[in-house]
Specification:
Length: about 550
């Protein structure tokens, strides 16, 4: 349903952005100097809730954290870990010890709490402290990512060694092949002990990191302003210190149409995400930027590490699912064959995304291979055959299947309902509010639901973990309660295997099991999509949808 803007709705964000711009640019004084600054402006539809990397997790938080902090390693555009604050590392032959050799030219942001107000050098002990606080569940929800670290303080095992100021050693309980990828997450950024100790719970509002930008101002639900870090450790190929931008200004206009108007008026430099870009006004049906937009803007797209799917609770011991017809594999397969994913992507998503005809793993991961995996394509005749094999010829005796979803995805649910009806499957749609829906799925209260999974780190293991039997919700993310011994065996093997070629083959085997057993209906692999002002240069894009501004320029 399209929203209609009243005059007050239209002008309120404009007035708000004008005030913010004036506050940020110091309107009325030093105009010539301020006009020469490079200021990057964007809007977030969601909220930034914390600037402490221990509380990373949401896209909005991670955007800001990515500008403020650094970790041992970072991801390159090919999704491989590369040096950051660690200039190099060694992994022991048994995979149980990671030794990181730190740069010695990195300092924290300047702050009055440091002697002389100047940020001090980062040392290995800072990483030991930063990692250690992640085990405190009152501070962070990253503790499950650290399960493989040999951290047992009660028995004298910290999990870390700091033999000198520039060497940091992590001890593992067992080998874990994706570990370097996990360390690229913003949770694992370095923070200074004395600053965190001084501010305590308020450190989130007084962040001190090592990143290309420093926090200048954060007004909750209104704006975040970050300024250039003059002592950032990175330089370009010509020897110029990064970053190029002077200011990053983030607004929080919740109405997507209002934010779109701001973008069109030049008050924002970027719109990111399919929900923000106003598809009807900016894109043609092929997913390309409309001709009348191309003189001012350019379109950025790339495969996203995100799979949108329908999940089915198939645990025979649970009240919500034990009598469900979805316990029958043939019915689950029939649903998969009944959906025209190509049409879904073409008409509902303006060709932004890829039909999920090749299993659960999305493009961009090294294990994705549509030529090797036998997935589902639209075949209504086969769907009818499988419905008959399931004991419901023509849908007789099946009854009504209820899909739960949130308002944002009602159009997709309606599309699928019509597709299933064409083969004899009657489906109704129940719309739930997002917080209620999330809890209901995690608590195994619904047996047919619409979900998506965004890779926390760029390794196929992160996607296959959704179906490992020991990760059943609510403790884990296995919302379908899928339980398959061969799948589990392959999954456990991929955790210790370090050869990427062998791991890719293991993941393909696991994905094929998912296709055959059909605990999920993969719908489409999402796409990162941005519309960017042409005065922005060198804004990179990758499948993690990370916005990194350290090398961005403005004309």
């Amino acid at each position: 349903m399209k929203s209609t803007l009243s005059k007050s709705t239209f002008f309120s964000p404009l007035v708000l952005l004008t005030i913010i711009a004036c506050m940020t640019l110091n309107c009325g004084g030093e105009t010539e100097e301020k006009d020469n600054r490079q200021i990057f402006k964007l809007n977030e539809l969601g909220d930034i809730t914390s600037l402490d990397p221990a509380a990373a997790g949401s896209f909005e938080n991670n955007f800001a954290l990515n500008q403020l902090y650094n970790g041992l390693v970072e991801m390159n555009p090919e999704l491989q870990p590369q040096p950051c604050l660690a200039k190099s590392w060694n992994i022991s032959d048994d995979g149980l010890e990671y030794t990181f050799h730190l740069r010695t030219d990195v300092v924290f942001h300047d702050d009055p709490l440091f002697p002389g107000g100047k940020g001090r050098r980062v040392k290995s002990d800072d990483f030991a402290y930063s990692f250690d606080r992640l085990f405190d569940k009152r501070i962070s929800n990253a503790s499950t990512l650290l399960d493989v670290i040999n951290h047992d303080p009660a028995n004298g095992k910290s999990g870390f060694d700091v033999p000198n100021d520039s060497t940091f050693i992590i001890h593992m309980k067992k080998p874990f092949a994706p570990f370097l990828g996990i360390l690229t997450m913003k949770f694992f950024s370095v923070v200074p002990r004395e600053i965190v100790a001084h501010y305590g719970d308020k450190f989130s509002s007084h962040p001190i990191g090592t990143g290309p930008f420093m926090l200048k101002d954060w007004t909750l639900d209104t704006r975040v302003v970050m300024t250039k870090n003059p002592r950032y450790f990175k330089f370009d190929a010509q020897g110029n210190r990064l970053p190029y931008l002077d200011v990053v200004s983030v607004s929080f206009i919740k109405n997507a149409e209002s934010a779109f108007l701001q973008f069109m008026s030049g008050e924002l430099d970027i719109l990111s995400g399919i929900d923000a870009i106003n598809k009807e006004k900016t894109l043609d049906k092929s997913g390309e930027l409309k001709a009348d937009m191309q003189d001012r803007f350019f379109l950025q797209t790339t495969p996203y590490l995100k799979t949108d799917y329908f999940g089915m609770l198939i645990d025979p011991d649970l009240e919500a699912s034990k009598s469900s017809p979805l316990q029958k594999k043939y019915l689950r397969q029939a649903i998969n064959f009944a959906i025209d994913r190509d049409k879904l992507v073409r008409f509902l998503r303006y060709n932004l995304g890829t039909p999920a005809n090749a299993g659960f793993l999305p493009p961009g991961l090294h294990a994705y291979d549509a030529t090797k995996l036998r997935g589902y394509t639209y075949n209504p005749d086969r769907a009818r055959e499988l419905l008959d094999m399931a004991g419901f010829p023509g849908g007789n005796g099946l009854g009504i299947i209820t899909l739960r979803t949130t308002p944002q995805y009602l159009d997709i649910a309606d599309f699928v309902r019509n597709q299933l009806a064409a083969v004899g499957i009657t489906m109704e749609v129940e719309v739930m509010q997002p917080t209620v829906f999330k809890t209901a799925v995690a608590d195994s209260k619904v047996n047919f639901f619409r979900k998506s999974w965004i890779g926390d780190y760029p390794d196929p293991e992160n996607f296959m973990a959704l179906f490992y039997s020991k990760n059943k919700s609510p403790e884990g993310s296995n919302y379908t309660h899928f339980n398959h011994s061969e799948f589990d065996r392959l999954y456990e093997r991929c955790l210790i295997e370090r050869n990427d070629s062998i791991r890719s083959d293991l993941f393909l085997q696991m994905d094929q099991i998912l296709v055959n057993e059909s605990p999920v209906v993969p719908l489409y692999y999402d796409e990162v999509v941005r519309i960017v002002s042409k005065n922005v240069q060198d804004l990179g894009i990758d499948p993690t949808n990370t916005i990194n501004l350290e090398r961005v320029k403005k004309k």
